[in-house]
Amino acid sequence: MGRIYGLLTGPRLYRIFGQAERSTNVMELIGRTMDSEYRQFINLWLKAKNSGKSEHNEVLKRYDFDLDGVNADFVADQNANLWYHQGSPAYVGGPVTSCVAWYAIHAFGRHMLYPGSSALLNWFLSGSLLSARNLMVSSKHGRRAWLMSAEGDIIDTMFIRGEDNNPENSWVFPYLWLLSIYLVAVVLVRTWCAPLLYGKIREHPVLPGTLQSYHRSKTLVISCEGNAGYYEIGIANTPSQLGYSVLGWNQPGFGQSSGLPFPKNTLAAADAVMQYAKNVLGFREEDIVLFGWSIGGFPASWLAANYPNVRAVILDATFDDVLPLAQAKMPNVFSDVVEYAIRTYFDLDIGSIIAHYSGPIKLIRRLQEEILTTDDAGTESERRATNRANFLLKCILQQRHSALMVGLESQVDRWLAMTPEHRAKSLHPSNESELTIRRAKLFAACDHYLTDFDATHVQPLDPRFFNIPDPIHNLKHNYY
């Protein structure tokens, strides 16, 4: 059956032609058995396999090999209480549409959505990933672990403990100390001196997150990579540079993780990572930040929906729904097939999922975005207007501030097109009319939830833009 499936799904031939170093012809087998290091690896692998004990994995982790069949360091529990997004019924086009959609997804659709799971790319990057893993362990004292998800996949992870005395953060502490004194003084003046100066008491502002404890190593950032991202060379490096503890993981089929990145496998892997972070690494849910880049916003949002007490969610270059992006890349004649395929097999509706999370969240929009736009032929402003991160912001505003959005949705588009200078001015209403104040509050909400980063989709995030958001308590204070 496997041979028939392989013939039907052409790109899977990459497993044969793209991984020449893993072919098992007789001559190579003889050559390997004569290699002392390979014989040593086989002995270690057999010992770990037969013992059934995960402690023997530590020696094996020095080698680069397929993880199928290894003993997991941690086995995730089955959780029947997890919530899953149930989308609207897919377009029904009959048996022909169903068959074409199935073939398209398994032959090339999955590879287009998740190129990082293709054998060819894994083979091409294997050397770089191995070097990066070794560097993480040797220079950053990384702790590698193999987790078994509820779907039976082995998920390759790496944990790096943060450093509070990170040289990049050494300047922060005296600055924060002085800033704290200043802000406390402002609060006292506005609270107790305002009646004398203005004849009325105004509510004191909510202090910004700069006063929070800067023991960053006590905060764990779980990074969720994009469709061609790996923890070895991915987004986990940004929070790590800032001194946060980080837990990176490769999605099923990526790097050394087994399986394929279908939604149920990806979400099961994400849940295994969360269970490992809480039960083994010992982090509280309140001390965990979920950081998703691109399609990694899908598992990050789902984790937030199921673990609503996480400290915050940061979504960088993330879309609201994969369907408009998929349809934009395919001819219009296949629109119905694409809709059926996406809604049936890869219904990545992040906007609907994140609606089930009400905690702190920050979106990062790439100004030179070339992947998440649906109009590649227009002007720069027209292309930017079709960035699906814009629509994700609207989903969040509609869910959390629906009263502000009534009749003002077009103002969100206006704010998204503004320069930073115009945005700053828009926070100060020119008069006290209800509409003007409501619009100023809406702009304040936009400013709270979204930050622009002048970069392309794949450019690494500048650490200065990695800011853990605070809850939005009262929009009044954001524009006074």
From TrEMBL:
Keyword Plastid: no
Pfam families linked: ABHD16_N (PF22990), Abhydrolase_1 (PF00561)
Gene3D superfamilies assigned to the protein according to its UniProt record, in alphabetical order: alpha/beta hydrolase (3.40.50.1820)
Superkingdom: Eukaryota
Keywords for the protein's UniProt record, in alphabetical order: Hydrolase
Record-level GO BP terms: monoacylglycerol catabolic process; phosphatidylserine catabolic process
Recorded GO CC terms: endomembrane system
Phosphatidylserine Lipase ABHD16 N-terminal domain: residues covered: 26-66
Recorded GO MF terms: monoacylglycerol lipase activity; phospholipase activity
Transmembrane segments: none
Domain AB hydrolase-1 stretches: 221-371
Protein name: Hydrolase, alpha/beta domain protein
Species of the source: Dictyocaulus viviparus (Bovine lungworm)
